[in-house]
Amino acid sequence: MPVAIVTGASQGFGRAVATDLAKDGWDLVIDGRRPRLLAEAAAALEALGRPVRAIAGDVTDDRHRAALVEGAAGLGGLDLVVNNASTLGPSPLPTLDRYPLDALARVYEVNVLAPLALVQAALPLLRRSKGTVVALSSDAAVEAYEGWGGYGSSKAALDQVHRVLAAEQPDLRVYQFDPGDMRTEMHQAAFPGEDISDRPGPESAVPPLRRLLDAGAPSGRYRADQWAES
Questions:
Q1: Domain count, the chain
Q2: Which residues are catalytic?
Q3: Collapsing DSSP states into helix, strand and coil, what is residue 175?
Q4: Are 70 and 60 spatial neighbours (Cβ–Cβ below 8 Å)?
Q5: What percent of the chain has pLDDT above 70?
Q6: pLDDT tens digits for range 159-181
Q7: Beta pairing partners, 52
Q8: What is the domain-level CATH number for residue 135?
Q9: In what order do the strands lie in the sheet with 27-32?
Q10: For 211-216, which contacts have Cβ atoms below 8 Å and span 24 or more sequence positions?
């Protein structure tokens, strides 16, 4: 059976992706920083009948990343990495003229360096399977929204890292996937005190991602609306 690592899978889009993959027969390695939420997600996934290895921890920790890759190897290999875990940064979102640089460094550590480090650790398994890497992008990576300089620039950097990775690893498929606005905890933090109930749930962006994966499209940056049903 195919094996996937999905980071940030205790809730939101990561959990929705992991659930869809499990329903389709995938074996999973998932992580999250909150052990209780991760355990709840793992129990729900295991109820679908597929092996799940849930490893609580922080993607910026090299030992944690190594454990994720070891978990995949223990399941027989690795076909897909979904670099979903990320951080918004300070909330409310500060403008760049007063953005705390230590907070910005943390945003880049989580959103850019950790995903690259996980791919580096996973490359031997991914090369063996000619697998796929998905980086969760955002329209803030390509549009200039006030207050989104920290998060948006980190996602722009993440996109570029994965574009270069695709050029350097032609046997892999490497996607930057923009799911669009979703009703998630992170999106709520970006708009504190506002009602975001009009945003679609994270599960709405999973079918477009699965269509992209199933199509075997060339490496590149794609939006969910490009893979919506016509």
A1: 1
A2: 151
A3: strand
A4: no
A5: 95
A6: 999 999 999 999 999 999 999 77
A7: 28
A8: 3.40.50.720
A9: 52-56, 27-32, 3-6, 80-83, 132-136, 173-178, 220-223
A10: 212/175, 212/177, 213/80, 213/132, 213/134, 213/175, 216/173
